[in-house]
Amino acid sequence: RAAIDDTARADRASAVLADVVRKDPSNAQARNAAGAAFMGRGDLWTAREHLLEAVQLSPDLADARYNLGQVLYHGTPRDLEGAREHYRRAVELGATRDPEFEKLIGE
């Protein structure tokens, strides 16, 4: 039941945030939040598109860099170098280190 509730929540969040992005496509925070919501749905391709745009709009947005690193690592095809690059930049910008992710990317 919890997994169904989480999926339903991610579905609702991604729909709401996609609407926010349509209304304000230059909102990097909304793009990052939409990317995270699509990650929660398992739609890594759409998450990647939102997160790439968030980083382009706001290169110093640590959360977007961290999320993009996750998507690049877990997506298909895997982009290990891209994942490392965005994770490192996220940490430089103040994101909390993630020891489990560091193991995955070989940091």
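The above is record 1. Record 2 follows with the same two-line structure.
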Amino acid sequence: IMFTETGMLGAYQAAERLRSKIAETSFRVKDTSLSITVSMGLACLEVMDDRSISVNDLIEEADKALYAAKEDGRNCIHTNCQGFPVGLTTGQLREFVKTQANHKSH
């Protein structure tokens, strides 16, 4: 999913809503109830300095973040964005997002 006109904070919030909704939803397949989770990697152009950026560069950065999320135990979100902590649990990252949102509203 590509978010245009959206900073990393807004992209993270949208991704977290999607991750959370998927995790809490049960899927029925015949007589079996299945639960699934999703890991996500987010990349932002803000991190990539002033160099010329291609779509492939952005996908590569998101892919690196995705693999970091998978290595971290899955069902989480990682990002390449500077100033946005990497390696936190989803709960810790959620707290970080709340703190950042509170700072912006004051």
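The two ends are 30 Å apart (CA to CA).
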